[in-house]
Design a protein that fits this description.
CATH class of the domain at 1-276 and 283-387: Alpha Beta
Number of strands: 26
Number of helices: 25
CATH architecture of the domain at 1-276 and 283-387: 4-Layer Sandwich
Strand order of the largest sheet: 19-18-20-21-22-25-26
Low-confidence stretches: 2-16, 64-71, 255-288
CATH topology of the domain at 1-276 and 283-387: Purple Acid Phosphatase, chain A, domain 2
Radius of gyration: 30 Å
Helix content: 25-40%
Strand content: 15-25%
Structural class: alpha/beta
CATH superfamily of the domain at 1-276 and 283-387: Metallo-dependent phosphatases
Mean pLDDT: 88
Oligomer: single chain
């Protein structure tokens, strides 16, 4: 009889874990192996299906659990359903009702931020036990102080082995502290994305063949995820218009409408704005208050990881300093990121966002000898606690604005230009900025649209920005020429070679790169002298971008005694190039020049065909030498001779090139001419700013640049040319792969 009772007790035994207190979480972690065997090991989706399935309804696991032996019995379905129903009842008024939360903080508020926990229950248990040890959290999950907040910053589930358990613990923390514990949507919590990953597999294993139970759990999880905010906005009572944001996503993600197109987080900014900028009329308003996004804390991104230590610096997003936090040492992160820490960030809010700090706490595993403070930064300036500027009152930032195509239009080129800017600005700010003044580069996406460029420029001017740098596009530069003429703004080193801006009258514009006309002249001279080519055709965009190099090519041909050529224009944004392709095939040129943008050039080449072009010498001006076009040409087995505004970023021995490669390597970025150009340009700006005394005005930096005569700069020689408003830089010809590029001085074109 005694044995019968024992057997019955085992059969009836169910897990007592409901995760209502820290002891249950700790005990559950102790009973379950942290790193179980997996079915695969991919970055995006580590699969623990076999591990989960083998343990449900296992008599022998029940025996082990009964005797306190480490086992793999998981949380039960009734616990899951109950917890989800309770949290959804508590949050029923929030269903689909809000996308952001704004909080005005009192001084000395502390925010503990956990990024990408990804089903790492054992790490989550470590965070809970540490909070308890600091007397910030009770055994029953209640926070002990009103100025303490917890933020789970997206992707708390999937990739790890304990997604259901992790979710239930976070739910318990929210349930106990609904106004102090926040869970932001990440990629896996948005638009049912989790349905294809580990959490769904765990639910299927839990429900077995019970389809009704499966649907119930899925629906309740979807309902809970729909209550999660996309972002938190934090401000202070002292400076309510200076804000910072905590969210998994960056602002560019929202522009692309990847997941939540109606949940635009700049709505909060609009609510705080006292007066709406009258951008539609392109008016400038004096003393107009505006909301200023000072910093952003994001989740670490799988395609661009930065938080290798637990806390990473991503550069700037429209002028805001961007950080990422990684908190899970799961197998995927150990394998692909060499990350093996329990880690979290502490955001300490003072009387202003500018004086607030961001600290990284971490412990190495598997030793887990205790969390230690690793490093503390000013959340806006990035200065570390060992910097002489850290304890000083924040100095005014030096603001520089820019617009470029980052999503549509010419996004590959734009992203590379932005990358070079970000790397150089980050490098400088990590070293104290300009005498303690941090650099803030406001880079906005304009989709290569001149109308959008104009709106963005006027908006930035309203925010007190009058120095613009590395703006992309000829037509885009032209749309705010009135502001340049009136000396309300200056434009430094715009990424355009259009000749119409290169006159003494345009003294508010200063170029680093030569003109497209000069690039085209040099290409023609090179091809005629090296290959004896006499029959040329030119495919060009029929606007200032394409007509400038076309005129330069014509000039060079005439000087060489060639009076006939074929001009083939297309209109900006053209989608049907069959007529143009047909004409080129009929004319059978020896060389075909591209004074065009990437998309239309690719379309034309497809229409003409590889067989026809295999015997034609193809050449292009520098903007076309972006990664996407190079890859396209390589796949077709063709070769293009490019001109370049910078030396070879991979092979050049110039000091600036070596410095560039060091910084790109540090950030795990590849080398390319566009990011090298912007890196050089920002380096020159920084060099000029370091020669100045505050205040750092547009007039002062322009005057410093205009003084340059044979100025040696890290292997380059800079001389201001007042006639063409540039710094007299050479042009390089990129010939065959792995061969040295040919350098030509601008004077050789005269």
């Amino acid at each position: 009889m005694r044995y019968l009772l024992f057997i019955v007790s085992l059969l009836c035994h169910t897990s007592l874990f409901s995760f209502n207190n820290s002891s249950e979480v700790s005990m559950y972690s102790e009973k379950h192996i942290e790193e179980p065997e997996f079915d695969n090991a991919t970055w995006l989706d580590t699969d623990y299906s076999s591990f989960r399935k083998q343990s449900y309804n296992s008599f022998f696991n029940s025996v082990k659990e009964f005797f306190g032996i480490k086992t793999n019995i998981f949380v039960k379905s009734n616990v899951v359903v109950t917890a989800l129903n309770e949290i959804n009842e508590q949050r029923k008024d929030l269903l689909h009702s809000r996308s952001t939360i704004s909080i005005t903080c009192a001084d000395n508020s502390n925010w503990y931020i956990y990024g990408n926990i990804a089903g790492a229950l054992h790490s989550l248990n470590q965070y809970i036990q540490w909070l308890i040890s600091q007397e910030l959290l009770t055994e029953n999950f209640a926070l002990t102080k009103p100025n303490v907040f917890l933020v789970f910053n997206g992707n708390a589930v999937d990739k790890g082995p304990y997604n259901l358990e992790t979710l239930l613990v976070i739910i318990a923390l929210i349930h106990a502290n609904p106004d102090q514990v926040f869970y932001c949507k990440g990629e896996h919590e948005t638009d049912k994305y989790w349905h294809d990953f580990g959490l769904m597999r765990e639910i299927k294993a839990l429900a077995h063949s019970n389809k009704k139970l499966l649907v119930t759990i899925i629906d309740t999880i979807d309902s809970f995820f729909s209550t999660l905010p996309l972002a938190l906005f934090i401000s202070t009572t002292n400076k309510p218009n200076d804000i910072m944001r905590i969210s998994y996503y960056g602002r560019e993600d929202e522009m692309q409408n990847i997941h939540d197109p109606i949940a635009r987080t700049d709505e909060f900014c609009k609510q705080l704005t006292i007066q709406t900028n009258d951008i539609s009329n392109n008016s400038l308003s004096k003393n107009q208050p505006h909301v200023d996004m000072r910093a952003i804390i994001m989740g670490d991104r799988p395609y661009e990881p930065r938080a290798f230590s637990g806390l990473g610096l991503l550069g700037q997003d429209m002028g805001a300093t961007v950080w990422s936090v990684l908190s899970s040492p799961i197998i995927a992160h150990q394998t692909f990121l060499q990350f093996n820490y329990d880690a979290f960030a502490l955001l300490s809010i003072t009387d202003s966002i500018d004086s607030s700090t961001l600290s990284l706490y971490r412990q190495a595993r598997p030793e887990r000898t205790g969390f230690e403070l690793y490093k503390t930064h000013n959340v806006v300036s990035r200065f570390t606690s060992d910097s002489p500027y850290f304890s000083q009152p924040p100095k005014e930032p030096i603001k520089i604005g820019s617009t470029m195509a980052l999503i549509r239009g010419w996004p590959v080129l734009g992203q590379h230009i932005k990358r070079g800017i970000t790397v150089r600005v980050t490098q400088q700010n990590e070293n104290g900025g300009i005498n303690g003044h941090p650099l803030r580069f406001y880079i906005y996406n304009d989709d290569h649209s001149p109308n959008l460029t104009r709106s963005l420029v006027y908006d930035m001017v309203n925010k007190g920005i009058d120095i613009f740098g590395l703006g992309m596009g000829s037509a885009n530069l032209g749309v705010y020429k009135d502001l340049l003429s009136e000396k309300k703004v200056i434009s430094l080193f715009p990424v355009t070679g259009a000749p119409q801006f290169r006159t003494p009258e345009n003294e508010g514009i200063l170029f680093l790169r030569p003109s497209y006309a000069q690039e085209a002249q040099l290409l023609i001279n090179y091809l005629v002298k090296e290959y004896g080519i006499r029959k040329f055709a030119f495919f060009y965009q029929d606007d200032v971008y394409g007509t400038g190099p076309l005129e330069g090519a014509h000039k060079a041909l005439k000087a060489l005694g060639i009076t006939e050529w074929i001009d083939i224009p297309y209109t900006r944004g053209a989608t049907d190039l069959r007529v143009e392709a047909k004409k080129i095939k009929q004319e059978q040129p020896e060389a075909l020049g591209f004074f065009s943008v990437s998309q239309q050039t690719q379309d034309l080449i497809r229409q003409i065909g590889v067989d026809t072009l295999a015997s034609v010498k193809l050449f292009a001006i520098s903007p076309l030498a972006d990664e996407a076009f190079r890859s396209f040409i390589k796949q077709l087995g063709l070769h293009v001779t490019y001109s370049s505004a910078v030396p070879n970023p991979t092979q050049s021995e110039l000091e600036i090139a070596q410095e560039y490669r060091d910084q790109m390597d540090k950030n795990n970025y590849p080398y390319d001419t566009a990011s090298f150009e912007s890196y050089i340009a920002v380096s020159i700006m920084i060099d000029m700013l370091q020669k100045m005394e505050p205040p750092y005005t547009k007039e002062k930096i322009l005057a410093e640049l205009q003084k340059l005569r044979n100025y040696p700069f890290k292997g380059l020689v800079l001389t201001f040319d007042a006639q063409e408003q540039d710094l007299s830089q050479p042009i390089w010809i990129e010939t065959e792969t792995n061969k040295p590029w040919i350098k030509y001085q601008k004077q050789e074109l005269s």
